[in-house]
Every structure is written in structure tokens, then in C-alpha cells.
Design goal:
277 residues, alpha/beta, seven-stranded mixed β-sheet, 12 helices, 10 strands, Enoyl-CoA hydratase/isomerase family protein
């Protein structure tokens, strides 16, 4: 049933880790595999993740994306040790040139892909790992998971969308607590703050995630993607601008096969059978 479509180099002690991208029907399942490093993303892992998400954005057969970490943790962020392991002094402007095509590109893809993205989080979700979970459309976390933005504790300012995502999800006051004070949030507190979709006992994370993925994959995929786009557009638009964008999205969604199926199901008083077209 499952077919591996992409994989970065094999993981092992001291290795760069891997990301598997596995097709499961209409789902794409991405797994970060570097458990000895809490699944911290090495440069090859980030490149593979970008490639898999880019391909998913172009694949009309897919209807949802699932991201998880192997082992006890979700993701401990970008591996700065691996990134700077050569020992050579980087050229001036190295970060400005490189990060938009690495960590920032991952967040941008999660934000803009017109497929619903679900993250399952256990253990640590740190830095870029935390922001992966925040950029997803839905994150289901264990109640004892830990969300942490440790940038200032390491002596540098935030990246990977932290200063954009957090204020919009939890407000400025709480964003300051996470970014300026480095407060850690449990999964339960993250749910209370509105940072994630749901926090459950660790043993329930998989079942709740699968129920959510099934529901999303059975939905009107075109309309879901356009709704996701409209929600993001509305974050920086005026009400008239947002409603104008809604009209364009409505025009597109009304031309889909799922729109016709939705109307037929309503008329016939039965559940719709959407195909994602």
C-alpha cells in the first residue's frame, strides 16, 4: 500500500539523519528520522523536506500531508552544529543568502501549500521544530510535549517565522513570554493558549491524528486549499480586500467537481462523496 517516494541519507550514530516521504493512498506521510538528536534537522534533511513538500504541492492525487518525528520527540529544530561543522568562517551575508532556501522555505511551503497539513507532536518541539508545528494547519500533541523557542537563550534572534506565527496565534503578550523569556509550554498549555489544535494523552496521539487526517482527506480538497489561502490572506488584508479575495476563491471552488457533488448530496439528503477534484 505504501510507497517511499523520497528519502535523505540513512540515519545512524553521528549521521545526518533522514526524512522519509511515503504515499499512503491520498496521504503523504513525512517522518523525521534522527532520534539520537531529537530529530534535529540537518541540512540534507531540510533539503529532502523541501523537495517532498514541493512535489506534494504539485500532486493532484494528494489530499493531506502528515508530519511526525521518529522516536520520543518531534523535532529539536535546525542542527546548527551540523550546519557549521566545516569550521570555516562563513562569507558575509551567509545567513541572509542561505536560510531563505532552507528553514524559511520549509515554513513557507507549509503555510502556502493548498493541502491540509497535520503534525503529530510528542516530546520536544524546539525552535524550527516548534515553528513546523505552528505552521501546520492542525497539530495534535501529547499533553506532556514541550514547545520551546530557545533562540535568545542561545544568543541569537528568532527565525523560521516565529515572530510572525506566535503573535497571530497567541497574541503579543504571550509571544513575548515565549520569545523574550524563553518560556516552555506543555502540550496541554499550548492547547489552552490556542497554539495547537488539540492535546491528548500520548497513547491517543496517533488515533486522534488518523481521525483528523481521514476527515480532511475525505473533504473537498480544492475548497479546503482555497479556504486555507483565504485565511492566510485575511491576516494582512482589510475586510473589503479579504471579501474580494473570497469572491475569487468562490469562483474557483464553484467550478470543481466536489462543488457539484456537494450540491447533489444536499439535494438528495445524503453525505457527500468528495473526490478532491
Amino acid at each position: 500500500m505504501d510507497t517511499t517516494v523520497a528519502e535523505s541519507p540513512d540515519s545512524g550514530p553521528g549521521a545526518d539523519g533522514s526524512v522519509t516521504a511515503v504515499r499512503d493512498g491520498a496521504l503523504l506521510r513525512l517522518t523525521l528520522i534522527r532520534p539520537d538528536h531529537r530529530n534535529a534537522l540537518s541540512p540534507p534533511m531540510t533539503e529532502t523536506l523541501i523537495g517532498a513538500l514541493t512535489e506534494a504541492a504539485r500532486d493532484d492525487a494528494l489530499r493531506a500531508v502528515h508530519i511526525q518525528g521518529a522516536g520520543a520527540d518531534f523535532c529539536a529544530g535546525a542542527d546548527w552544529v551540523a550546519t557549521n561543522s566545516t569550521g570555516a568562517r562563513p562569507r558575509t551575508g551567509d545567513l541572509v543568502r542561505r536560510i531563505p532556501h532552507a528553514a524559511h522555505r520549509v515554513i513557507e511551503l507549509l503555510h502556502t501549500i493548498q493541502l491540509p497539513v497535520v503534525c503529530s507532536v510528542r516530546g520536544w518541539a524546539v525552535g524550527l521544530g516548534c515553528n513546523l508545528a505552528l505552521a501546520a494547519d492542525f497539530t495534535v500533541a501529547a499533553t506532556d510535549a514541550v514547545f520551546w523557542e530557545p533562540f535568545l537563550a542561545r544568543g541569537f534572534s528568532p527565525d523560521s517565522g516565529a515572530t510572525w506565527l506566535l503573535p497571530r496565534l497567541v497574541g503579543l503578550a504571550r509571544a513575548r513570554r515565549m520569545l523574550l523569556l524563553g518560556e516552555k509550554l506543555s502540550g496541554a498549555m499550548a492547547q489552552d493558549w490556542g497554539l495547537i489544535h488539540q492535546a491528548v494523552d500520548s497513547a491517543q496521539v496517533d488515533s486522534i491524528t488518523e481521525e483528523l487526517l481521514a476527515r480532511l482527506a475525505d473533504g473537498p480538497t480544492v475548497a479546503i486549499g482555497l479556504t486555507k489561502q483565504g485565511l492566510h490572506y485575511g491576516q494582512h488584508a482589510t475586510l473589503p480586500q479579504a471579501m474580494t479575495q473570497e469572491l475569487f476563491n468562490l469562483e474557483l471552488s464553484c467550478r470543481s467537481a466536489d462543488f457539484k457533488e456537494g450540491l447533489a448530496a444536499f439535494t438528495q439528503r445524503r453525505p457527500p462523496d468528495f473526490t478532491g477534484r
